[in-house]
């Protein structure tokens, strides 16, 4: 294992320390509790949004803290959900009297820890709503699994719900918008290589040079199956087809298309893949209203990508276009 | 042989558990790497060390106060699914031993049953889904079958948990992160069942009078 680290035990703390140093005017980072806050809290009376999850998916979630998106993000250990103490502290700190939305990716640990935290803060009189994202179509049989995983749609939900909260919508409205994003978004991922968890020191799974893993999650867990490596045009089809099979028709509305890198694939390849996806969507008669290409929800040093498509109505598009100013996503400011 | 285990014995249990989890941390992580996300050993080692430290720092006169501290510490330090699960187990186990400092086999079985109730509620899981419950349920059955002697009962429970752990190998996971693998989850032991078997082995050794 070769990594830019001091010690496997201090990776998360050291990274958060660096994040604080890099964005002193924008972020306030609690390096003891591993919580990223906005440097300047939003106005009283607005809904706040707290997200969080295991580290190793950067810029998700800490990189999306800022005006127009999250109010706080709780960082767990690598690929390990944050603990209730962190979530309770973050929720209490960002509440501006209008309630707090917890945006949670659907993993057993994340759901349990956010649930425990929500029970605790509710007892303290803070109004909390929770929306769990579960957009990964690679999980085929939700009845016999922990349910579809929360992946790419989480980024879109944080952006869109964040905009709704910023313009002063109520907790119920912000939660409804996040729910709508999740209901209308679907994702599928693939890997060319495994990732290496620092504490583990070696790749989480072995993948021969001429094979790829289809239907991966974002934690180095193996996917649904592996097959021989194929040209990008074919891989684009492997990702797009299962999404289109499950994407709500949405009265023929267009989509937000999000081609995400897993951490170790160059932007050159991600744009190349996006081009192939765009061709397929064009041939299927699906209008791409907005697009996003880059590394936004990663899996440490995994090579590969995921595709997320979101059927977007006018309100979702308006909120998508609203100004956002975070280390990981910035426009309109 | 001992007909009861006292508060000091329970503390010894946690110390032995801390040691045996640390010793097997890499193995737990490797089991998790096969069907999960390669962090179970690391997380459990961190959590058990913190729990033992918290117990050493506190002054406890009853089993419930001590075990609740352990539960809260695990919830706060382990993370993932194991933190809320093991944390809830110890919180509920402690709740069933309110005011006690000397525990007989029947009370221990009732406390473990309460802990398992917490696992089921928090994890929404059942037997046969390739989870830690597949080690806990056989252990509870063995405890209940040996109501007379704590050392005998906990040894039977540890053996039953080990057998339960091994029985998870051919199972298809339908809960937790391993469930995403579907049929590819067979052929691997569940890491949660493996850590449960280690905890129960430590309990049996503490009940037999071993010291940390």
TrEMBL record, chain A:
GO MF terms, alphabetically ordered: glycerone kinase activity; phosphoenolpyruvate-glycerone phosphotransferase activity
Protein name: phosphoenolpyruvate--glycerone phosphotransferase
UniProt domain DhaK: residue ranges: 7-331
Superkingdom of the source species: Bacteria
Pathway in which the depicted protein is active: Polyol metabolism; glycerol degradation
Gene3D superfamilies: Dihydroxyacetone kinase, domain 1, Dihydroxyacetone kinase, domain 2
Enzyme class: transferase
EC number: 2.7.1.121
PROSITE patterns cross-referenced by the UniProt entry: DHAK
Catalyses which reaction(s): dihydroxyacetone + phosphoenolpyruvate = dihydroxyacetone phosphate + pyruvate
PANTHER family the UniProt entry points to: TRIOKINASE/FMN CYCLASE, TRIOKINASE_FMN CYCLASE
Subunit: Homodimer. The dihydroxyacetone kinase complex is composed of a homodimer of DhaM, a homodimer of DhaK and the subunit DhaL.
Keyword set, alphabetical order: Glycerol metabolism, Kinase, Transferase
NCBIfam families referenced in this protein's UniProt entry, alphabetically: dhaK1
Entry GO CC: cytosol
Classification via Pfam families: Dak1 (PF02733)
Listed GO biological process terms: glycerol catabolic process
TrEMBL record, chain B:
Biological process according to GO: glycerol catabolic process
Keyword Repeat carried by entry: no
GO terms of molecular function: glycerone kinase activity
Gene Ontology CC, one term: cytosol
Cross-referenced SUPFAM superfamilies: DhaL-like (SSF101473)
Keywords: Kinase, Transferase
The keyword Transferase is annotated on this UniProt entry: yes
Transmembrane segments: none
Domain DhaL: 8-205
Name of the featured protein: Glycerone kinase
EC number: 2.7.1.29
Any Pfam family: Dak2
Species of provenance: Propionibacterium ruminifibrarum
InterPro entries given in the database record: DhaK_L_YcgS, DhaL_dom, DhaL_dom_sf, Dihydroxyacetone_Kinase
